[in-house]
From TrEMBL:
Record family assignment: Belongs to the GMC oxidoreductase family.
UniProt xrefs under SUPFAM superfamilies: FAD/NAD(P)-binding domain (SSF51905)
Descriptive protein name: Choline dehydrogenase-like flavoprotein
One matching Pfam family: GMC_oxred_C
GO molecular function: flavin adenine dinucleotide binding; oxidoreductase activity, acting on CH-OH group of donors
Domain of life: Bacteria
All residue ranges annotated as the Glucose-methanol-choline oxidoreductase N-terminal domain in the record: 361-375
Keywords: FAD, Flavoprotein, Oxidoreductase
Annotated signal sequence range: none
PROSITE patterns linked: GMC_OXRED_2
Length: 602
């Protein structure tokens, strides 16, 4: 048994040899896909536990029996430094164990729609030098809408995408963990470092993060648009653009039939409190509630841009080059002339074009611009908001089976005016930042009883306190939670607990190390009040604003038309241009803004 297998057996309390082999193999696969520092951290953590076991028990982890491992776990949990290390290791290890709780991939029928025709060519097969009227970098929410607009105007458009194309075959034929590791940058382990660290997963695929998102669709709130109008953002007629996006994505309220018990309990709890709540509006026509949105919809029901705007762009003549990482934008005498992209084998291709649209996402766009020598604006990479999110689980007497139903099903908007949006979001254990309590066999029991947990998540409208450093390929992301945002998250914890208790939860799992379970609202309020930011196990799914657009030249790297200042021929059209966090799930807003920007490209 190697150190990783020993750590899996010990921290997750797994005794069955076959289970152990399966989960340990998953943990190794996760480690392999992590960025080097995280990989080193996980492997070093496993090695450290093994050494500790030898020092304190005289045996390696694999020499301990089950009771010995439990005693060792108790010692690890008793010391803050080792407890923190074990908690960090639990996230990837639970991912390896937890995704196995998903229902088996469905039999090969029942697709809501077939995979569309896409003119995709892998970079390996793309010629070394070609020309186009426009190059769009990134095929996600913003890039897809920009590519479609330009192609429909008769331009020859090439979309460069670092990820590869995934189809329903991948989502139906491969286990959830494999899909997870393939669909996310850094195996899903991108972190913003700071106080506290925040998990910041990002999709990397044809369709970008829309392939893995939850399909929740909110229109940009009016008060946000008013603020943006004052900043000079192109929000006139924004309602029409949102209509166009909604029509493309076929957005509609999620029918009750597929919500699943997780969503129904959220509705019931909110109703008992007299709180405003409803099934979310989603872009998932034909959703059957299989809760797998985060690893690619096996039914092609979730209608990401890989199923609509990109095929429409291709119909109008656009071409997509996959596994092509834009290395730099080529510039001559202050004017963009094309893009150089790296193939997986390290060779390069160049596409010469007078129009470049950067849509690589909030954390990558500033890096690409800096690599291209276009990162001179002092505000580039600064002022990132992320919508930090935390979650809470209620334990019910009856099975909830939260992974059967819509993954993100119900919105509770009672506190939205205060910047708190609660959404019933049920990923299987490990696939969110929610840490089940305990170590060893007690954690294993929690895992086995996870079918009785209902999970709520809450995100908050936050201060733009993040920053993307780095000039090469690795983003160094820093995010420090503002004091008032920490207070808002504590309030969100209590609000979620109230909903769960009102729905009949016997107890609520807080994820807080000092008080992992509470029996009533008063206990939860006390526990939340004592929680330090580091206790809040934050994740964030909506980074925005690292290349803000606006009228103020000094404060915005991008002008109101989406043009990067200081160079001719470069537009930015992704989440990085948003002037502030929108306070709601942002995909519709990003797409509508990309339409506005692309419409203005001459
Ligand atoms: C798990 C999860 C769930 C979410 N759920 C929701 C939801 O329910 N509703 C909602 O509104 N929002 C949701 N979001 C957020 C939403 O999907 C994103 O905000 C949105 O997709 C961002 O759009 P974008 O165009 O900025 O970037 P992306 O959609 O991330 O696209 C950027 C693309 O650029 C590519 N790229 C990056 N660098 C390069 C390069 N150098 N060369 C070539 N290609 C490159 C990337 O591989 C990626 O495919 C979720 C996000 C996550 C992570
Ligand atoms: S819940 Fe998500 S993955 Fe499952 S069918 Fe609906 S959209 Fe697809």
């Amino acid at each position: 048994m190697n150190a990783m297998t020993g750590a899996v057996a010990t921290l997750l309390g797994i005794e069955d040899a076959a289970d152990l082999a399966r989960v340990a193999a998953g943990a190794e696969a996760i480690a392999d896909s992590l960025p080097a520092p995280a990989r080193l951290g996980l492997r070093t953590g496993a090695g450290t536990l093994d050494v500790l076991a030898r020092l304190t028990t005289g045996h390696a982890l694999d020499g301990l029996d089950a009771a010995g491992r439990d005693a060792f776990c108790a010692r690890v949990a008793a010391r803050p430094s080792t407890a923190r290390m074990a908690e960090m290791m639990k996230i990837p290890l639970l991912l390896a164990a937890g995704t196995e709780l998903l229902p088996a991939p469905p039999p090969p029928h029942g697709l809501a729609r077939p995979d569309p025709e896409l003119d995709c060519a892998p970079a390996a097969e793309w010629p070394g030098c070609t020309t186009a009227d426009a190059v769009v970098i990134g095929s996600g929410a913003g890039g897809a809408m920009a590519a479609r607009t330009l192609a429909r105007r008769g331009m020859s458009v090439v979309v460069l995408e670092e990820g590869r194309r995934f189809t329903s075959r991948d989502f139906r034929g491969r286990p959830p963990l494999d899909r997870f590791l393939g669909l996310y940058r850094d195996g899903g382990a991108t972190f913003a470092l700071g106080r506290p660290p925040v998990l910041l997963p990002e999709g990397r695929a044809v369709g970008g993060t829309t392939v893995v998102n939850s399909g929740t669709c909110y229109r940009t709130p009016e008060h946000v648009l008013r603020r943006w109008a004052e900043a000079g953002a192109p929000v006139e007629g924004f309602g029409d653009r949102l209509d166009e996006v909604e029509a493309t994505l076929r957005v509609a309220p999620q029918p009750m039939g597929q919500l699943g018990r997780n969503g129904l309990l959220a509705l019931a709890g909110a109703e008992r409190l007299g709180w405003r709540a409803a099934p979310l509006r989603r872009n998932a026509p034909g959703c059957v509630g299989s809760a797998q949105c985060a690893v690619g919809c096996p039914h092609n029901a979730k209608y990401g841009v890989h199923l609509n705007a990109l095929p429409q762009a291709c119909e109008a003549g656009a071409r997509i080059v996959t596994e092509a990482t834009a290395e730099r934008i080529l510039v001559e005498r202050g004017t963009a002339t094309g893009v150089r992209a790296r193939r997986p084998d390290g060779t390069f291709l160049e596409i010469l074009a007078p129009r470049i649209v950067v849509a690589a996402g909030t954390t990558r766009t500033p890096l690409l611009l800096r690599r291209s020598g276009l990162g001179g604006h002092p505000e580039l990479g600064r002022g990132m908001a992320v919508h930090p999110a935390t979650n809470l689980a209620g334990r019910f007497a009856e099975p909830v089976v939260s992974w059967s139903g819509v993954m993100q099903s119900v919105g509770i908007e009672e506190l939205h005016a205060d910047g708190i949006l609660i959404e019933a979001t049920a990923t299987p254990p490990g696939m969110s930042s929610f840490p089940l309590p305990g170590l060893g066999r007690s954690l294993r029991r929690e895992l086995a009883g996870a079918d009785r947990l209902a999970v709520l998540g809450a995100m908050i409208a936050d201060a733009p306190s993040g920053r993307v450093h780095g000039a090469r390929h690795r983003a160094l992301i820093r995010y420090d939670l503002a004091r008032e945002d920490a207070a808002r998250l504590r309030r969100a914890l209590v609000a979620m607990g109230r909903v769960l208790f009102a729905a009949g939860a016997e107890e609520v799992l807080t994820g807080l190390a000092r008080k992992p379970a509470v029996r009533d609202e008063a206990e939860l309020t006390r526990a939340a009040a004592m929680a330090a930011p580091a206790d809040l196990h934050l994740a964030a799914f909506h980074p925005t604003g690292t290349a803000k657009l606006g009228a103020d030249r000094a404060r915005t790297p991008v002008d109101p038309a989406g043009r990067l200042r200081g160079v001719r021929g470069v537009h930015v059209a992704d989440a990085s241009v948003l002037p502030s966090c929108p306070g709601v799930n942002p995909q519709l807003t990003i797409m509508a803004m990309a339409l506005a920007i692309a419409d203005g490209i001459g």
